[in-house]
Design a protein that fits this description.
By secondary structure, the protein is mainly α. 54% of the residues lie in helices and 4% in strands. The chain starts with 7 loop residues before the first helix and ends in a 24-residue tail after the last helix. Belongs to the citrate synthase family.
Length: 450
């Protein structure tokens, strides 16, 4: 519901301000200012150095021209496809990636067991935290509630403002262990308070992985199949990090570089991730596809799908923004490796249920036509990004839409923590960029002359 503006004068102030505040687009080129920290070819402006993760979406020829290629995501120099496909699955894929991102090397079996034990000991919430901060204070939006919960955890820390590297690692792992429970409890509380749904509380199990605990706490009977927990484990793994240039990670480094506490910098990252241009994008995809299927049905013809794609582009369907969500990426050009892996796993699971197979087949057909349409329209390759299939995967798992972006928080937290620590260790300067003033110099106008 839109806010009713009873302050007519405020609207007048705002309208008048347009004569004084406008910045012409031409000035960005004049002063060589990169809008959105993007170069003219849409690549990101370098703002730091990292050894944590690398995102490859294109190469360059001898003259510096950009060449499209299949995407690769590296965690500490290791292709994520190798991490997924080469190991015998041991149900702790996300935890293994977390170890790798934080410490820079792959753990032995014992090292991974010890690391998981540390996380598992941190599963339990502080005394009365659930009752006082989640059940009695439900939130309208789970991302805002997660921010509130993290800032509240500050009060349970005996030394919350200690920003030294090792205490930061300890505090980070403590939060990591608690986030899955906090996110699901926040959802349960919201549904109970605002939608009058039954309130069922399950406690985390110390013998479960992060993925297993999320499913166990969320589901009324706490039951799940090995295939389901593996898919969620994969989703957590794929979202664990995406380099230092992503908005929420960069936000974390910027905020923490002021030497503020970890809880504040993590809350800031959650605020950045909430937006539909970042972590909230998979919700947009899910809503868009739901509306398309409702309109066309699962057995729509190629001609009908093409027509609705054109309507979306022409601002005539869904949210009228002219965007086909789930396609295109700031770095990836031909493929997003995360999307390819999720698609493969969803295809395997869809074979087990007829109604899911029909839904998956529609997604595949829509993907093919949307990519073709956008690539031809933009005169460059447009790939399917991770958000197109991640929402579908969550739907397969019966995870409510409200939890899509909080699950992103749970997963990406380790990436934020790794970059936070890396900056403290090897840069440790306050991040302070500059802006160019392009306004006029004005003389003061006395009261009686205004």
């Amino acid at each position: 519901m839109a806010m009713i503006d009873n302050n007519i004068c405020l609207a007048q102030f705002y309208g008048k301000s347009q004569n004084y505040t406008k910045i012409s687009r031409t000035l960005y080129n004049k002063y060589n200012v990169k809008r959105g920290l993007r170069n003219e070819d849409h690549t990101g402006v370098l703002v730091g150095l990292t050894r944590i993760a690398d995102v490859i979406g294109y190469t360059r020829d001898d003259t510096g021209n950009k060449i499209n290629c299949n995407g690769v995501l590296y965690y500490r120099g290791i292709d994520i496809n190798e991490l997924v496909t080469n190991d015998i699955y041991q149900k702790y894929l996300y935890e293994q990636a977390s170890f790798l991102l934080l410490f820079g090397y792959l753990p032995t079996t014992k090292e991974l067991d010890d690391f998981c034990s540390i996380l598992q000991k941190n599963y339990e919430l502080p005394h009365e935290f659930l009752e006082m901060n989640l059940l009695r204070l439900p939130g309208k939006h789970l991302m805002n509630k997660l921010q509130h919960a993290l800032l509240t955890l500050y009060n349970y820390d005996s030394d919350p403002d200690n920003t030294e590297v090792y205490p930061t690692l300890q505090k980070g792992l403590n939060i990591m262990g608690k986030l899955p429970s906090i996110a699901v409890y926040a959802y349960m509380s919201k549904m109970h308070y605002y939608h009058r749904k039954s309130l069922i509380i399950h406690y985390p199990r110390a013998d479960y992985s992060t993925a297993e605990n999320i499913l166990s706490i969320l589901r009324p009977q706490s039951t799940f199949t090995p295939q389901e927990s593996r898919l969620l484990d994969l989703l957590l793994f794929l979202h664990a990090d995406h380099g230092g240039g992503t908005n929420s990670t960069f936000t974390n480094v910027v905020v923490s570089s002021t030497n503020t506490d970890l809880y504040s910098s993590m809350a800031a990252s959650i605020g950045a991730l909430k937006g539909s241009r970042h972590g909230g994008a998979n919700i947009k995809v899910s809503l868009m596809m739901e509306e398309i299927i409702k309109t066309l049905g699962l057995h729509a013809s190629e001609k009908e799908i093409k027509k609705i794609i054109e309507k979306i582009i022409n601002h005539e369907f869904f949210d009228n923004q002219g965007l086909i969500y789930g396609f295109g990426h700031a770095v990836y050009t031909l493929t997003d490796p995360r999307a390819e892996l999720i698609k493969m796993y969803c295809q395997q699971l869809s074979k087990e249920r007829t109604e899911v197979k029909e839904l998956f087949d529609f997604y595949v057909r829509f993907e093919k036509l949307a990519k073709s349409f956008l690539s031809e329209r933009n005169q460059t390759a447009v790939c399917t990004n991770v958000d197109f299939y991640s929402g579908f995967a969550y739907q397969l798992l019966g995870i409510p839409r409200d939890l899509y972006t909080p699950l992103f928080v749970i997963s990406r937290f380790v990436g934020w923590l790794a970059h936070n620590i890396e900056h403290k260790l090897y840069d440790n300067r306050i991040v302070r960029p500059a802006t160019k003033y392009v306004g006029n110099t004005e003389s003061y106008i006395p009261w009686e002359e205004r």
